[in-house]
């Protein structure tokens, strides 16, 4: 059973009209024919609320005795037995009387939702669990009845019932909220203007966050890449240096200047993991930004300015805060720096703030884990010191006599310096060369490579041994540092890979691109074959290298099972990299299997949809097509009968019935053929530029005169459409609207321009359609409500949406203010760029494609 939908009316304080709004919604739904009952509503003796209960079915409450008194609670079992479409449940945060089915009313609501019953409820902002401390600090009252925030956030619809503090206090003074004897105390305590203003701000900000989540979902769904400055969202670029704390605090102050501001700190790490900031400093900055109410993000990217701008645009940021560069003046010869590049590439939608700090021009000073053990420059300096140092020292010591012990200590210092700079080999060369110089110049007999005193032999041997030991220690430390840096890079890569596995976010091409970037290759491809003798085929690839016909042609290949391999071109990788590469290869195979399973599931779903449509088509043919045929046959048989003398009026009536039956047949068959073309993907629109006011009037020929009011300005921009498909779409929409409009109420067909789109609205004043049915009415063979079988097979709206999508437009349903339904047909204006479609889709195929 499908889970029911939850709609919540949220208010800032008691008395703003939440229950009244909920009951008004119930009356509207009942008028539309929805089975709606009052599970529990607390009127609190308010006359207007009690009046709104009239005409609504109420489920009797369950009476419970507690401490000598009898209380009425919602009877969950009775509501489940009644099984209405919609149940009204007031005061979501209420605590039930002991002995009830559940401890909290929101738990009762969860049961109703799980049973497939839609619930409309109410709650005040002070009852949200996360805001308990804030509300207590404002009002001085601790709320005992709370509801978890997640329960409210999961609601399908949240509507804010707002009222100014002054209006609410007037309602209170008039006795519309509390009894007269409680009004003065309430106005002077909880309902003070300051309290109500603060609670109102809390409610507005909380709902704004929810609206922001809806906005992000809409931007993602419609692939909107431009920045919409609906609220201040500030991105702080961190380098891991000590200036990051200053930037975070400055961004927080900027966010506080605008209501609802948000701070997001982001650190850009290289994809190879070989350059990194101080983990300790990043941890401190993460804690700081989270304490200040912001969020911390870790992003991988080799091009720091581009990655920072992509992140900012992806989160719809309005400002970027960066620190002044810590590079010294001579370092600018290597480029303009991140700040200048971001400011130049940010465009008109992003403001970039460059903030000064105490670390400006002091050098970056960040630890760098080099690709080699010590680096080429250090090795060269090590050899220079190891070979030239002893010679220079020997020349200097020939001018002064310091004694053999001091001479050996000085040569040992040079050997240690060579070891610290260049590692083992330069230090060994320095020790050997220094030993020869000590023997030749300072050990008797002088200027000969012999040693007369055995003690000096021991001294020279100790000198050589100490030099070797120091060089070995330095070389070992360098190797351990390199291994630690490499393991850290591997762990970051594997952690990223594991996160994608758990979330199922990475597609095959994205994963191969990640492999190519991580290992600095030209291309990466996943090859597979059906058997040991079958040819290899490419399941996916990334990069710009030549196509590969077999793994042996690649520079690096990693087998995955018996008939699959990951192949890379660009350079030969060391053996140490193959461990991480093997993990990527295994994940690529998993992603490929998951994609194929999804494709199989889609095909199965398509076949199931086709079976459903085939069954519906047979039902339509068996009844809706036979009905007009039967009427035509009966009328013709009557006219041909010789037993009855028909008057001219009777003959005209029978002929009129034949004509109406033929028209119905023509309309039904036309819709069936159109739906068949849509479902099989054979609709090929001939797009050309045309004025809307040339097409829309032609679509009104099939409806009665004076049933439609037309408002299509001649000043609208031209649209890029197929005129025939547009005319058929509008005709179906108008016919549907006229069918459900009350007698004497004309349907309005209006058009207007919005940005690079032109919208055609078909507005009726009929019973309307509930939110949960607005998508279903566009499915084939769907008729809303209790429409008679003779009303058609339910293809008109499906055909209209299919034609609209085939032309690159959209068709959606909205509520008409005051009651009714509005169909919104959005078309692309001439000259506007078409919106990009996902890979594999075509403009000539509707999204809901099925095969008959």
UniProtKB/TrEMBL annotation:
Q: Which Pfam families match?
A: DUF4118, HATPase_c, HisKA, KdpD, Usp
List residues of the Histidine kinase domain: 620-831
Q: List the biased-composition ranges (Basic and acidic residues).
A: 842-852
State whether keyword Signal applies.
Answer: no
Which keywords describe this protein according to UniProt? ATP-binding, Kinase, Membrane, Nucleotide-binding, Phosphoprotein, Transferase, Transmembrane, Transmembrane helix, Two-component regulatory system
Q: Quote the catalytic activity from the record.
A: ATP + protein L-histidine = ADP + protein N-phospho-L-histidine
Q: What is the lineage of its organism?
A: Bacteria, Bacillati, Actinomycetota, Actinomycetes, Kitasatosporales
Protein name (Swiss-Prot/TrEMBL): histidine kinase
Q: Which InterPro entries match?
A: HATPase_C_sf, HATPase_dom, His_kinase_dom, HisK_dim/P_dom, HisK_dim/P_sf, Histidine_kinase_KdpD, KdpD_sf, KdpD_TM
- Species of origin: Streptomyces canarius
């Amino acid at each position: 059973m499908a889970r029911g939908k939850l709609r919540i009316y949220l208010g800032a304080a008691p008395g703003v009209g939440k229950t009244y709004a909920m009951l008004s919604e119930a009356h509207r739904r009942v008028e539309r024919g929805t089975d709606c009952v009052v599970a529990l509503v607390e009127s609190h003796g308010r006359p207007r609320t009690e009046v709104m209960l009239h005409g609504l079915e109420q489920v009797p409450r369950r009476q419970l005795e507690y401490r000598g008194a009898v209380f009425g609670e919602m009877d969950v079992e009775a509501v489940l037995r009644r099984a209405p479409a919609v149940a009204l449940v007031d005061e979501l945060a209420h605590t039930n009387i002991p002995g009830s089915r559940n401890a909290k009313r929101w738990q009762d609501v969860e049961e109703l939702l799980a049973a497939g019953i839609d619930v409309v409820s109410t709650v005040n902002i002070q009852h949200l669990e996360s805001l308990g401390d804030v509300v207590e600090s404002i009002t001085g009252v601790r709320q005992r009845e709370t509801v978890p925030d997640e329960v409210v956030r999961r609601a399908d619809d949240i509507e804010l019932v707002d009222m100014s503090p002054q209006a609410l206090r007037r309602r209170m003074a008039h006795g519309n909220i509390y009894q007269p004897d409680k009004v003065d105390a309430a106005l002077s305590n909880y309902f003070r203007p300051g309290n109500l203003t603060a609670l109102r701000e809390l409610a507005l900000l909380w709902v704004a966050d929810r609206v922001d989540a809806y906005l992000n979902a809409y931007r993602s769904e419609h692939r909107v890449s431009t920045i919409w400055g609906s609220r201040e969202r500030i991105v702080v670029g961190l380098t891991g240096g000590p200036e990051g704390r200053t930037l975070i605090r400055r961004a927080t102050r900027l966010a506080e200047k605008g209501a609802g501001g948000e701070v997001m700190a982001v650190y850009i790490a290289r994809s190879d993991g070989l350059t990194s900031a101080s983990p300790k400093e990043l941890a401190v900055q993460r804690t700081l930004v989270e304490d200040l109410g912001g969020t911390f993000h870790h992003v991988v990217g080799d091009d720091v300015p581009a990655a920072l701008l992509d992140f900012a645009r992806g989160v719809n940021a309005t400002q970027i805060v960066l620190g002044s560069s810590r590079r010294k003046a001579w370092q600018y010869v290597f480029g303009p720096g991140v700040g200048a590049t971001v400011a130049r590439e940010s465009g008109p939608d992003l403001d970039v703030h460059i903030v000064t700090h105490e670390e400006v021009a002091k050098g970056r000073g960040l630890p760098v884990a080099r690709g080699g053990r010590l680096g080429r420059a250090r090795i060269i300096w090590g050899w220079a010191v190891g070979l030239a140092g002893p010679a220079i020292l020997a020349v200097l010591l020939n001018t002064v006599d310091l004694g053999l012990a001091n001479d050996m200590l000085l040569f040992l210092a040079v050997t240690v310096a060579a070891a610290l700079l260049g590692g083992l080999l330069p230090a060994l060369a320095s020790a050997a060369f220094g030993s020869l110089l000590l023997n030749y110049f300072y050990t008797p007999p002088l200027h000969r490579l012999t040693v007369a005193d055995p003690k000096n032999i021991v001294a020279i041997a100790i000198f050589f041994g100490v030099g070797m030991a120091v060089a070995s220690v330095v070389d070992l430390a360098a190797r351990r540092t390199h291994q630690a840096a490499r393991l850290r890079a591997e762990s970051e890569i594997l952690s990223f890979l594991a996160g994608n596995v758990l979330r199922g976010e990475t597609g095959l091409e994205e994963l191969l691109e990640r492999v190519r970037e991580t290992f600095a290759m030209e291309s990466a491809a996943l090859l597979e074959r059906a058997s040991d003798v079958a040819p290899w085929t490419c399941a996916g690839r990334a990069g710009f290298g030549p196509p590969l016909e077999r793994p042996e042609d690649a520079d690096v290949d990693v087998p995955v099972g018996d008939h699959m391999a990951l192949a890379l071109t660009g350079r030969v990788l060391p053996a140490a990299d193959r461990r991480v590469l093997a993990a990527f290869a295994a994940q690529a195979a998993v992603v490929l299997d998951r994609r194929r399973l999804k494709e199989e599931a889609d095909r199965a779903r398509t076949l199931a949809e086709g079976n459903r449509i085939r069954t519906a088509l047979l039902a339509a043919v068996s009844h809706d097509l036979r009905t007009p045929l039967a009427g035509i046959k009966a009328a013709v048989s009557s006219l041909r009968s010789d037993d009855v003398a028909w008057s001219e009026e009777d003959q005209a009536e029978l002929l009129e019935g034949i004509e109406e039956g033929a028209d119905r047949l023509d309309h039904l068959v036309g819709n069936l053929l159109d739906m068949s073309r849509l479902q099989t993907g054979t609709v090929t629109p001939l797009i050309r530029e045309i004025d809307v006011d040339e097409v829309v009037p032609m679509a009104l020929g099939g409806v009665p005169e004076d049933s439609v009011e037309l408002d299509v300005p001649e000043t609208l921009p031209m649209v890029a459409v197929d005129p025939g498909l547009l005319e058929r779409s509008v005709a179906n929409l108008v016919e549907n609207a006229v069918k459900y409009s009350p007698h004497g109420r004309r349907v309005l067909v209006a058009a207007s321009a919005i940005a690079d789109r032109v919208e055609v609205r078909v507005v009726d004043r009929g019973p309307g359609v509930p939110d949960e049915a607005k998508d279903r009415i566009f499915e084939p063979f769907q008729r809303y409500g209790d429409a008679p079988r003779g009303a058609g097979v339910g293809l008109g709206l499906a055909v209209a949406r299919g034609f609209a999508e085939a032309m690159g437009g959209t068709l959606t349903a909205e509520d008409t203010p005051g009651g009714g339904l509005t169909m919104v047909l959005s078309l692309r204006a001439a000259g506007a760029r078409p919106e990009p479609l996902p890979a594999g889709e075509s403009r000539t195929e509707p999204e809901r494609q099925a095969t008959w």
